[in-house]
Amino acid sequence: MFSKSTHQNKRLDKKTGLPIPLTSLEAYQILQDQQSCEVIERVVRNFQNLVNTQTSVLVDLQKGEAAMNNQEFLDQLIKTSGRLISALKCHTPYSTLFGDLVKFKSQLQVILRYYQTQIATGQPIAKQFVMNAEEILPSIHTEGLLSDSESMELLMYSINYCADDIMKNDLKNIYDFILDPFLLDHSKEEGFSYFRP
Prior knowledge:
The protein has helices spanning about 5-10, 20-35, 35-50, 70-90, 95-120, 125-135, 150-160, 165-180. It has about 200 residues and is mainly alpha-helical. It has a domain at about 15-120 and about 165-180.
């Protein structure tokens, strides 16, 4: 992965032309090695489908117990994860990648708490969606191809019907992601510092 000579090797950010910090380079390489792009995409997509921007209660414990603006949080999550996904798919690390990764891990903690609460309370948001969808399902076209809106309705029904399993499967990925420092172990390198060029 990285050798001592890599510490002096300054890779430049394609947008800014500035050297990319070692923290961002290491995080990028570890994300690539762990094939994290697929995990990030799946967790974000599942959350988008399982959160109700109108009725879900999202809480960031780092900022206290107050409920968050769901749409604002979702927009920020999509932007942050989008930058990480783009870097991984295009093989282009960037200067603030490590900062985005820390922000994404903080956002994952909000998702983690939401999933834990939904599982503990019996999936009230998903159950409400399923009940509402079951009223509409009989009216969905029964012959031939489904329209785009009918297909989306069936997809959302399936996702919410399986919400408990989806959330439980994602919890492990979220835990692992939050706990991973995404930095290399430099403890055996005498005098190593991220602050020294």
